[in-house]
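User: hey, got a sec? need Serine/threonine protein kinase folded
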Amino acid sequence: MQQDNQKKVSLDRDLGLWSALSLVIGTIIGAGVFVRQSAVLDDAGSTTMGLLAWIAGGILTLTAGLTIAEIASQLPQTGGLYVYMEKLYGKLWGFLSGWMQIIIYGPAMIASLGAYLAILLSDFFGFPSSWNIPLAIGTVIAVGILNLFSNRYGATFAIITTLCKLVPVGALIIFGLFFGKHDAFGQSISEVHATAGNFGVAILATLFAFDGWILVANLGGEIKNPRKLLPQAITYGILAVLAIYLLVSFGVYRAIPAEKIHSLGTSAIPYIANQAFGDVGGKILSIGIIISIVGCMNGKIMTFPRIMYAMARRNQLPFSKTLSYLHPKSHTPIFSTVGELAIVALMIVFANADRLSELCIFTVYCFYVMAFVGVFLLRKRNAGKKRVFSTPLFPITPIVAILGSLFVIVSEIQSDLVGVLTSFVFVIIGIPVFYYQSKKHAGEPDNGPAEEEID
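Assistant: Yep! Here you go:
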């Protein structure tokens, strides 16, 4: 009887456009906009080229988002990229994209956010550095507990943290635009002229700051009218982040000279806050960054377990029966969430999460390229059928998205071949798991996303 009741439990489809939009913006904007200003400027060589790098990164991300939006409007089920890869290329490719995200990429991203958040909390409250690991695990668990309840709580928290993080962002923009005394265009960095001008590397740095926009697609089964709202959330969310990043960069360049930004490194924005608003301003900015990271972490903790849940429904993972369980009251995948948090905690304690997340960037972009190519495949398969959303300027937009992803892939190969090969190992480990689970559950019904789940 208990098993029959569980079969009737499904994910709540009650997330509207504002919730989805807040998740896109909140999941993208973490600490990157605050700490990467110097890195982008150093690689670009001048403020003009730095602004162009942010624009280029935003445009490439937008082309990617518009391409995926068309796919999402046709395949708006829980699981996002995992579902797209399965529908486009078969179960093995879908499994490998999901495996990589739930075992390494997602947990590593969450763990790195937790580790950085712990450092900020220790600095803010004066805790000893020995507290960093317990603080990191504690904050991850706290946000994770929130996501064990109805998805309305996580979505509401996403809206609140997104609004809160826009306060320090807005303060930086206003101060730079109206009180800055320097020209945002034409400033160069004399100290690094010998190595500057690598515009491609600067774009690469901005692309990493834009990453995370696709994660809202993991909630396709919980969004109202996902065929319409998913494309809107992805498109408007990326446009909003692009505008925010560009305005923040412009404000920073107006506030202090390029040479000063270069010399300060990651401390450039705290320096501006202290100069503009005094010690109180620095504290407020720190609170803003902390809230920004918590909001980013919430988006990732809310979305990655949905991939694990979707895979478990197909019996593709060990302990699938447990991982596919939905709580009868909250209608959330509580064991998938707990399982994901357990991997995160292990990474915080035993691994360098930043390094692991860097390793997986290459693999993620390999799957991105395949997904972008998939928009051509879907148009061929569904020729003559009406689409709720069509990628603008097709085929130029998906071609630009493909070329942008190939740029990331080639750059990663050139800069970190060992890391690239290591990331392949993580993916290959999933192949025997897939075939073992397939053999073990051969003949059983596939509980994957069906059309009745999304109509």
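Quick note: The longest helix spans residues 268-313. Let me know if you need anything else on Serine/threonine protein kinase.
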